[in-house]
Amino acid sequence: MITAEQKPIAEIRKMIEPYKRILVVGCGSCVAECAAGGEKETGMLASALRMAAKMEEKEVLIKERTLDRQCVKDFVIQLEDEIDRYDAVLSLGCGAGVQAVAEMYPELPIIPALNTVFLGETKDQGLWVENCVGCGDCMLFFFGGICPLARCSKQLLNGPCGGSMNGRCEVDADLPCAWQLIIDRLERFDALERLEKIYPPKAWSRKQGKGPRKIIREDQQRV
Amino acid sequence: MTEKRQFTLALFYCQNIPESGLGERQALEEEYRSSLRLFPIPCSGRLESLHLLRALEEFADAAYVITCPEGACRYFEGNLRARKRVDVAGDYLAAIGLERERVGIVANEKGKPKSLAALTGEIMDRVASLDPSPVLNKRTGQKGDAS
Amino acid sequence: MSRLKEVLTQGGFAVTAECGPPRGADPEAVINKAVLLKGKVDAVNVTDNQTAIVRMSSLAACTLLKSRGLDPVLQVVVRDRNRIALQSDILGASALGIGNVLCLSGDHQSFGNQPDAVGVFDLDSIQFLQVVKAMRDEGIILGGDALTGAPDLFIGAAANPFGDPFSFRVVRLGKKIAAGADFIQTQCIYNLERFQQWMEMARDRGFTERVYILGGVTPLKSAGMAKYMKNKVAGMDVPEPVIKRMESVPPKSQGEEGIKICVETIQRLREMPGVHGVHIMAIEWEEKVGEIVERAGLMPRPEGI
Lengths: 223, 147, 305
Fold this sequence. Notes:
C: eight-stranded parallel beta barrel
């Protein structure tokens, strides 16, 4: 899933300052899972912003609403029934969601309330970790299900580097050395010889692309 | 001329607190009138940070939760969760310039747990030093329709 | 073109040292170090923005050393340059008459004074070795386009016999050799036993027949330095007896003790089969290199090369 964190309220207040009728829109997908932009968080942020406005004796209309997803037009369009009442949208979607809403309602300023961070998993309650960089050419088979691009600080495909000590990464003692993990995992499958091969340079053009990447599926298109 | 508003405490309490049944609740409401609003919940763990914020937004100068003693939660962790949720609400308050102390948590005593009435009295004393909430004194409402 | 290669291929025990470029544009800083090292060593490594701190470029500093008659080893890390820049610098180095290159990963950017820099890591050090070898031996760049003139370089890689996982270290050494390393310089050695174990594993796999291994040494200036290296530097193994030995002499004599340990280590290395030289990393203590080489019985360096 995509993870995000709420921006500091001071920063959010600065951005919404000029507006008098704000719709705060949450998202029930990834950002709900990482407790940043779901219905609860959206409710709390809206409530706090209303209180702040009252304290400053500012006349502001702030309402909230949570969509199932903000990154799919079919959901975003549900805002149609009330969007005309507002002069700005404060979105608790990830960057994809914010932009999808902005594209649907280009006349309205769409303000991000979150900082989108990474693709990752919920490793434990309250703990999310990055584990995929979206390289477009998944090599997880070769590395026992542990991605060296996401989890090795130097993205080595032929690791480890000289700084791996006690299974820890030289950059941060709290980080496991991804290559130690890979070696341990492959040993378990008796597949360590997979690492004797020299993995060639990565085709980064599948990650960086020529501008924003896209996927087109004709079988999925409208007839 | 505006009526002078009473300082109001919103009090969420676990139904497992001694002497907190309907009768006792009504008695307390009689006694404190509009300065107290009581919200029974099945376990303090059911309290959401949002409840506290909404209370402060709408009518309360302070919003507290009473939990069972540590280790004595019927549902094991409810009181510990309530603690975290109060902290989250406090973070939002601090971020907008309101005192953290407008929200709080009181765990009943182990061994000799007190009644709802006794705990209410203690909390009322505790919040007495707070100024009336700057959120509630203002005449401005929301632009447009009422929520 | 490469004195280091000549010494090694003629069967000699090579001596290399290290030089860190200055954190500024003054060429004198490099020239001064050149003067200290001339005649005492066969080649001089020039570090590449070591610990991710911005310094004069290795390529520029190598050229300055070359102008003073030294044989530089251009260290190149993959942290700061993509494959276009890396291959370009290889061509440039060769054009400037630099005869040796050391292909490295590099310390992570978060260690230095530009922590917000992107860490490029387009290639890793092993892929980079492969690329340089193909440029030299096949006259092509990555992707197969032919070069109008192939670079002539003696290719090196670093190895850490003391990092984890220990058993995998030799596999990684094998990969570096397969990728194209002609010579290896190791992380500095204080734990001779562990180094010997690693050498044995390398010999068992026939690696010592295929690559020239130079053992790394760093003279300790003080007990404090020994402890710092033990605790704060990644991939370093400084055994307790070494620390105790440094602590056993008064602070004024610790430098001398450190040099003694260094010289003894070199003497042990000379006796180890498969070790073809020593790489002396006297960080900010370059003036002692001559003395160390002398006391280790390695002077004079071979003439007429």
